[in-house]
Amino acid sequence: MKDLILLTKVSLGATFNFNKLFKKRNLRYNIKKLLGIIGAILVTLIVLASAYLYSYGIGSILAAFGQVDILPELVMAVVSIFVVVTTISRVKGTLFGFKDYDLIMSLPVAHNVIVASRLLTLYIINLAFTLIIMVPSSIAYIVLVKPGVGFYIYTILSLVFVPIVPMIIGTVLGTIIAYVSSKFRRNNFVNLLLYFLLVAGVFLFSMVTSSSEEAIGQSAEFIRDKVSSIYPLSWIYRDIVIDYDILSLLLFIFISLVFLVVYVVVIGRKFKEINTSITSIRTSTKRRKRNYSLSSPIVALYKKELSRYFSSPLYVLNTGIGMIMLLIGAIATLFVKSETIDQLLEMPGFSELAGTYLPMAIPFFVVMVYTSACSISLEGNNLWIIKSIPISTKGIFLSKIGVNLTVILPLTLLSIVLLSMGLSISPFHALITAGMAIVYAFLTSFLGLLINLLFPVFDWKTEVTVVKQSLSAFLAMIGGLVTAFIPIGGHYLLSDLISPTMINLILIGLVGLIDLIIYLILIKVGTRIFRQL
Fold first, then answer.
1. What is the DSSP letter of 281?
2. Would you kindly state where each structural domain of the chain is located, as residue ranges?
3. Taking the model in full, what pTM does it have?
């Protein structure tokens, strides 16, 4: 038990960088860490408030149809699905293929203990997410229903076991995917395809189930039956928190612990073998004739950055989710009637005014792509390599900015073409929308790189730390969302003075001016900061 606690402490410290928190006698370093903590607290509060408001809204609709008791199990099922999805992406880097694998394996500790410590790390992360979502939803249920004391007791007792089975399912799926994909030279396609299908499924499901309040009420029983058939533990959870069934609680705990113990024992026996297979590099003795071409230093570095980006499914999926959602939505407009779109968005007449609305909506998808906010940090201990190659700092910056633009522009412009076809937008308004997308693509690229230069993280153990948990990623995301409100604010202030089309043109020029200012700061100040890293 002592070894398990110590290994888990080390794993958590490496994941969240607790080991060096405020240990350096450096004011700037400590300020960065303090800002990171404040940022994490703010994000947590926002998620808590959003979870409560969303749960209360859905619960109010269900209550109107006398089916509010479905809310706890529905939220539990959604959280469980999310835990499965996120765990799949964490398997490689947390359970297998972690950086200090050789060091950990050299310790006089049983493999079962190592597996258990890694699972415990995943469990703590997933439990935190579970509590952040399910506690507010439980409060919303309490406000709506005012249940007895039994609800509080059974909810508290069952919550700690909710993420276990989904976590094990996610690790099994992640292990299988990582093992199978490791047998191919290009082993990331399966991961990306799986996540794309999951995101598409969730997005389409939300479109189908959120058509109207009446539809939600009428389909609640159907949804519950479907959820129970997909994830049987959801109906057991309902028996626990709604019917206060002690036998269901014991069964829920028993199933969770059996899943956990069986997985630890089985994987513990094959841990070294699986890890070796997943992390091994597949080579081929077959000779193939290749044609090599020369590229300029900037183009070569850009290709290297682009290859680095697509070699990491975690990196792609966390920074490319906005483009995936935009493309799916654009494709959906080709098959959904205009009246249905108006009803889904709860905005009557949206289709008729889509040319005005789209330039305000597109920035919110574009700013979700922030690859440049992670690109400096991901160099890690190899930063000295790109600093020593014969290329200017400006060229290095352009290569990293180019990757961000490559992720955004092709998919965004394709989506605008599809949206123009699906919503019957005129070519002129489509060009305005494309112009807004382009200036925001440069904005998020410049801003993300500048933020990463100010708040780099080089001592990371897994990519998760940089892509999802770093201060630069957080600030780039929040900063991008703040700037995305500029078009909305512009229309709000100027709608009574000039036409919407003229407002959009002015806003494109304004954002373009902001792009130029940030770029000049990046070249002058950013270059000096980069040389000091």
1. P
2. 2-196+206-279, 297-532
3. 0.69
